[in-house]
Amino acid sequence: MFALLEALLDYNNHVTLFQRMMFLMSFCLSGIVLAVQASQAGEEDHRRIQWTRLTDQSR
């Protein structure tokens, strides 16, 4: 278990600032998209935001 933690910390030392920022940005954006999807789960079709709907065209 300690070896896994040590390997993870060693990998973290080699990650650049840009990679960390991109990971944080993608994490935030995916959280926002998932929150919008979850908030519209029970809404009627005419009240939903069109770009978040999964249709045959958007698959």
Quick description:
Keywords: Membrane, Transmembrane, Transmembrane helix. With 59 residues, this protein is an all-alpha fold.
Describe the protein in words.
59% of the residues lie in helices and 0% in strands. It is mostly helical. The relative contact order is 0.07. The protein has helices at residues 2-13, 17-39. It is elongated.
Helix content: 55-70%
Q: Can you give the mean pLDDT?
A: 79
- What is the CA-based Rg, rounded? 19 Å
Q: pLDDT below 50 for ≥5 consecutive residues: which ranges?
A: none
From N to C, what is the helix and strand string?
Answer: HH
The total strand number stands at: 0
Give the amount of beta strand, in percent. Answer: under 5%
Structural class computed from helices and strand pairing = mainly alpha
Kindly, what is the distance between the CA atoms of the first and last residues, rounded to a whole number of angstroms? 41 Å
Helical run tally: 2
Keywords: Membrane, Transmembrane, Transmembrane helix
Transmembrane segments: 20-38
